[in-house]
Amino acid sequence: MGSASKNVEDSQISIFMKEVNGEFGYVLQDIPHLTDYVSDLTTYPNPIRFNPAYSVVKQYFVDMDDSIPEKIIVHKDTPRGIHFRRAGPRQKVYFASDDVLACIVTCGGLCPGLNTVIREIVYTLDYTYGVKKLLGIDGGYRGFYSKNTIALSPKIVNDIHKRGGTVIGTSRGGHDTTKIVDSIQDRGINQVYIIGGDGTQKGAAAIYKEVRKRGLKVSVVGIPKTIDNDIPVIDKSFGFDTAVEEAQRAIYAAHVEAESTENGIGLVKLMGRYCGFIAMYATLASRDVDCCLIPESPFYLDGKGGLYEYIEKKLKENGHMVIVIAEGAGQDLIGAKDEQDASGNQLLLDVGLWLSHKIREHFSKLDTMPVTLKYIDPTYMIRAIPSNASDNVYCTLLAQSAVHGAMAGFTGFTSGLVHGRQSYIPFNRIIDKQNSVVITDRMWARLLSSTNQPSFLGSNGAENPGNITPRAQGA
């Protein structure tokens, strides 16, 4: 790489992230602040100090030096490594409550917990900071410039967490940075809360970059939403626990169907376009699954060690079996084309239908082993349900942390959980790669030992396809 290209790349990174070095190899990957590009900003005492809800808390403000390590497994001679700024309220805020006009937008596919996040952003802004002017952007990114806004208040959003979906609507695509920032500027919006997956967070980064270019006093905050759990750095994304829990119903139904007939096979397709976290965790939680197939672990059908051989073996042993397959698995076997949807995601062929057809076709040729296969696809049933108790708590923490950060003048960041602590993560760390199951990691080994399925790997093993350090999976 030439020096000119490297300088451009470094300058782009510096827009999104400030690195602060300390002793013993300490590195803080800090998030941007409005004061980085807007001068002479007025500060105000944080209204929390007058809030009765916080009156019993001994230390309700986060110390400016608090940070969260990216890696917690270290050796005695290991440098302290990369850290992220700890989330939470600061002593001073950079917005007067009466001056705030905040907006919330949800983008991409549905996910349990969207309404909970919306509700808690509204409640935190109103009840904690006294902000009364709140808008919902109708229908995703394109709603900024093609639709009317939706007024939001605690009364309006009071019970929306009990419903699935998103009350302000969503859509894929429609991102036009110039039009969106024009709308933000024209409407006088100064806090933007963007809820969505990796594609949405890339859009949020582009919005922040344009806002900064124009010198606007606007905090742009991302809240990670992907049911697949494929966003890096953070422990997990909201909705994931609910998805795993709800997937149990489909797996249970498949198991009942399979064991009720001779040579019964239950096949369940779960979400997981590029990664197999839902399939893996649902399999481990269920204990009824005999084989789990995910995008990160290629498999084959015919020959020694193939899927057909394993199915035949399990049917002879138990008389039935259950297979869970992630939607992105086996796309190379189907011959999927390199086409994308409006969000930039690869268009997938239905691997569940394809595999059910191939299994039926194969065993129909074996007169000695007729099979009965039941195929279940609960994808949209899972996406549309309300979040469970665990995700509701997590959504609350994400939303409150996002508001605390915006009011403190931070911008260009995503609110997320890192090793159980709420953190502020620069956009560029969230969007530069995707999280994936590391099939050379202990978590995948636990699954293989649970199902006793073949690994479908050669003697040389496999590389880490996601190039993600297996910190969270190998606990």
What is the strand and helix layout of this fold?
Elements: H1 3-16, E1 18-21, E2 26-30, E3 44-45, E4 67-69, E5 81-86, E6 92-93, E7 102-106, H2 114-128, E8 134-137, H3 143-146, E9 149-151, H4 154-157, H5 177-187, E10 191-196, H6 198-214, E11 219-224, H7 240-259, E12 264-270, H8 277-286, E13 291-293, H9 307-318, E14 320-326, H10 331-334, H11 351-364, E15 372-376, H12 379-383, H13 389-407, E16 413-418, E17 421-426, H14 427-431, H15 442-451
Parallel strand pairs: 2-5, 7-8, 7-10, 10-11, 11-16, 12-14, 12-15, 13-14
Antiparallel strand pairs: 1-2, 3-6, 4-5, 5-17, 8-9, 16-17
What structural class results from the helix and strand content?
alpha/beta
The shape, in one word, is elongated
What is the number of beta strands? 17
So how many helices?
15
Low-confidence spans: pLDDT under 50, at least 5 residues? Answer: 4-8, 459-475
| Radius of gyration of CA atoms, rounded to a whole number | 24 Å
Helix content: 25-40%
- Strand content is 15-25%
Distance between the termini: 37 Å
Overall average residue pLDDT:
90
What does this entry look like structurally?
The protein has 475 residues and is α/β, with parallel strands linked by helices. The protein contains 15 helices and 17 strands. The strands form 3 sheets. Strands 1, 2, 4, 5, 7, 8, 9, 10, 11, 16 and 17 form an 11-stranded mixed sheet that branches. It has a 4-stranded parallel sheet with strand order 13-14-12-15, with helices on both faces. Helix 5 crosses helix 6 and helix 7 packs across helix 8. It is elongated, with a radius of gyration of 24 Å. The two termini are 37 Å apart. 48% of the residues are buried.
